[in-house]
Every structure is written in structure tokens, then in C-alpha cells.
Amino acid sequence: MDAESQEPMLQKGPPTHRERHFTAGEVVRDVIMGVSDGLTVPFALAAGLSGASAPSSLVLTAGLAEVAAGAISMGLGGYLAAQSEADHYKREMKREQEEIIAVPDTEAAEIGDIMAEYGLEPHEAAVVEGLRRNPQAWLEFMMRFELGLEKPDPRRALQSAFTIALSYVIGGLVPLLPYMFISTVQDAMFTSVGVTLLALLFFGYIKGRFTGNRPFLSAIQTTITGAVASAAAYGMAKAVQAR
Q1: SS3 157
Q2: Which residues, at least 6 apart from 41, have a Cβ–Cβ distance to it below 8 Å?
Q3: Torsion over CA of 209, 211, 215 and 220, rounded to 10 degrees?
Q4: What is the rounded average pLDDT of the residues 223-237?
């Protein structure tokens, strides 16, 4: 092999390394929360009303009203939870900032303690002095590594509210779809049971893949939860009707 043919090979650098990390954990958590409740609660409501021999039109009307109310409630809950996290971060950041100004030597010693947890000796690294020269970086370091708090996205509250509410609506419409097209309530109920259980199986499997759990076990657990809730509502309606 001559020098000209070897030159391109020598010029090639190391292979490009692309890290594949999943960074949408908060969005997935919101989707799981919304779809899970959306599939289960209207499903149980529809089964309960069907057990009380309500007509399909009444089941559908009540189910849609519940989906609307549930989506608003769940979305508001997600908004308030995210807003509370942001407020908590701001309070802790203000307190930490005051401590850095009031007792800088104590806070600098805490940096050394944090580094020691990772096997680094404070005198071996210039991190401590570097952070002391950069108060903003020092503050962010203490927030993340001392308090374990990540800076929240300022759009997080609205995004969480919208994601949870939309996911709830999507999940809640699944068990109600048969009542839109089947006038006989018993036939609609049995169709709803089949469709919703399949949706719960699929959703549970996907949830297991995203959360790192065993997908098939997650699918079975999710399906059993929905089935038990709907069976309890149906049985309760039948018991009340029989009195």
C-alpha cells in the first residue's frame, strides 16, 4: 500500500460518539398521569351508569361532562404542582444566596464536602476558588449539588397543565366511543370494556417501556387496575338498583 492510499486512513479521527439520552421525563410523566386517569375514571363511570340501566345517550352525556371536568381538574392540579416547585426553588435560591453572602467560608467548606462525596479532595481541585470568583455559578452549584434542586423551566406550569388535560381527554374518550355509535347500552358497555382493556394493555406496555419497568408486567397491572375500578362501579350500581 503506497503513501497516498495510507494518507486518508491516517487522517480519519476517532468515530463520532452520539449520546442517546431520554430528556423528556417530565412530559412523559404528565402524559402517563393524564392518560392513566383518563382511561380509568370515565371507564368506571360508564360501567356504573350502564349497570344502572341508563340509556347510552345518558352515559355518553355524563361521560363527556366528566371528561371535561376531569381534564380541567387534572390540568389545574398539574399547573399548581409545577408552580409550587418553581416557588420552592425561588425561596431556596434566595436563602442560599443570602448564606453565600453572609457566611462565604462556611459555604465554601460545603463545596469541599460535596466534592469529597465524589472522591475529590478540596485541595486537589481549583473548583472551590473558581466558584468563589463566580457567585452566580457558585449559587447554581449549591442549588444543584447541595440541595438537589434543578432550575425549573419557566414554561413548565403551563406545559404541564396542557399536557395533562389533553392526555386526560384523549384517554377519556376511548371508553366513551362505543356509546356514540351503539344505542343499546349493554352492547355499548361490552364493546367499551373490550376497547378500553385493549387500550389499557397497550398504554401499560408503552408506559413500562418509558419508565424502565417490565413492559408486560406494567401492561397487566394497568389493565387490572382499570378492570377492577369499572367492575366495582358496575357492581355498586347494580347493588343500589336492586334495593
Answers
A1: helix
A2: 66, 70, 172, 229
A3: -140
A4: 78
